[in-house]
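Readers of this paper often ask what the protein records in our data store actually look like. Such a record has a labelled line for the sequence and another for the backbone structure tokens. The tokens are whole numbers drawn from a learned vocabulary of local backbone shapes. We quote a single record here, exactly as it is kept in our systems:
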Amino acid sequence: MDSSLFFDPSWLKRQPNVPLNFVWPKECLEDSLEELQAPVLDLDEFLRGDNEATLHVAKLIRKSCLSHGFFQVINHGVDPALIGEAYDQMDAFFKLPIHRKLNILKTRGSLWGYSGAHADRFASKLPWKETLSFPFHGNSLEPVLTNYFHSTLGEDFEQAGVVFQKYCEAMKGLGMKLVELLAISLGVDRLHYKDLFEEGCSIMRCNYYPSCQQPNLVLGTGPHCDPTSVTILHQDEVGGLDVFADKKWQKVKPHPNALVVNIGDTFTALSNGRYKSCLHRAVVNQYKERRSLAFFLCPKEDKVLRAPEAIVVKDGTKQYPDFTWSNLLEFTQKYYRADEDTLQNFTKWLLSSKP
């Protein structure tokens, strides 16, 4: 059988049974029966510079991040029409015939390109999804994404590059504001983390989860914490995002005007372990496809990452060794499949590999 068929949702949907390499263990498939009661934060007055509103929002963020590392934001300054255009461009890509998508196939060790079920990296517990990932350098004078789409997919995807360039610029701007709020919530100078992220290369990922005839056997994305710092996600109205909180899986109901924000492992380290990296997963639907847009804010690869001295002094101990984002990236790309223990295992790996 042509291995490329395994990337093809139309082929997968025609199978009477889910192929074995897509089946997940029962302990990962436990149902989420409740809806997560996470705050939906209105950023309008914070973005206008209101100090009282800023402190109020920071207080709510602190509470969420000490518990499960997850919250949602509205009045975030990102144009809903731009989000809609990004979905249109994403839909156009995922509707391409498989041979066109394979022209931009993500190769082993690379972060960028098309992936069908991450079959280039893993042989079992494959996620029931397709992804398209690309880099965003916010400090470049070049229209990086316009050039990327044109060079990889041709002239008919030039507009996709224009849209995603604008979308990523908006997400990077919001991400920098969220990092300010996180600093305030931790009681350090609001610009403390700015230098780490300002020139970083962030990751944009489009996710497409086809419907599945046996959704109780598969996962769109397995349980994991993001190794990155801050994730800003828009999910469509179908739903399927679950967060692990209070020792159980809980559903995140789609909110049409909200962006989902979660803390990743890198920011857990930058908070000296105070803020929880959000353990989450994506389930799939028997009848409907689901899509989401994920922007991962990343620090500059060579910046040394360590928690603020004031926090370490207050806590009495430094929880993690100094590291760079390129260290953690190497670990997750070459040696480890991201899960809830990534940061813990990365720390052991880093300490054992240092001379």
Summary: The domain at 18-353 is CATH 2.60.120.330 (Jelly Rolls). DSSP finds twelve helices and 13 strands in the chain.
